[in-house]
Amino acid sequence: MVEELPSVFLVGPMGAGKTTIGRLLAKQLGRSFVDSDWYIESQTGADIAWIFAKEGEAGFRERETRAIDELTQQPQIVLATGGGAVMAAENREYLKQRGIVIYLNAPVDVQMARTAKDKSRPLLQQPNPRKILQGLYSARDPLYREVAHIIMPTGHTYPRHMVNQLLQQLNSFCISTSVDSEPEKD
């Protein structure tokens, strides 16, 4: 199954566990793991907060779209996208058409707990981060669902257990997809 599995792309809000789950999943699948934010940082030589400060969110999103385009063309990788990657229609198309998209769905309380002390998230450097997270979740959840082939709730189980569940779902997804694409026999 693993050899036939296309690239796997993780989407979801900040704090959903995309990087943690992505690393573990890549290890289990014997694949390379790439985090799109880290990729952007390595390409620019600057961290995301600096890019936001100098170029604004629009400048960052342009860089993100170029990165998503490049990364989704790589064969058999596990990619963790930034939380806002789904905001651009181009990115949603790249993700949906070039691999299997897994939406790691984390409730706002889980996001708050995981991001509370993280100063590297520019969108949360506001007086009321909970309100920001709630607004982002409301705006982005339908877009995550639009691109997702698999939806996995996060925050209530250990990462290794979640990866085992994902492997089962990926196996089921691949089996059902191959059955659906086989020509009918007379």
How would you portray this structure in words?
The chain has a single domain, classed as P-loop containing nucleotide triphosphate hydrolases (Rossmann fold, 3-Layer(aba) Sandwich). Helix 1 packs across helix 7 (159-181), helix 2 crosses helix 3 and helix 5 packs across helix 6. The longest helix is centred in the N-terminal third of the chain and has 25 residues, at 48-72. The chain is globular. It has a five-stranded parallel beta sheet with strand order 2-3-1-4-5, with helices on both faces. 57% of the residues lie in helices and 12% in strands. With 186 residues, it is of the alpha/beta class. The protein has helices at residues 18-29, 36-44, 48-72, 89-98, 108-115, 129-147, 159-181, and strands at 8-11, 32-35, 77-80, 100-105, 150-153. Pathway: Metabolic intermediate biosynthesis; chorismate biosynthesis; chorismate from D-erythrose 4-phosphate and phosphoenolpyruvate: step 5/7. Monomer. InterPro entries: P-loop_NTPase, Shikimate/glucono_kinase, Shikimate_kinase/TSH1, Shikimate_kinase_CS. Keywords: Amino-acid biosynthesis, Aromatic amino acid biosynthesis, ATP-binding, Cytoplasm, Kinase, Magnesium, Metal-binding, Nucleotide-binding, Transferase. Mg(2+) binds at residue 19.
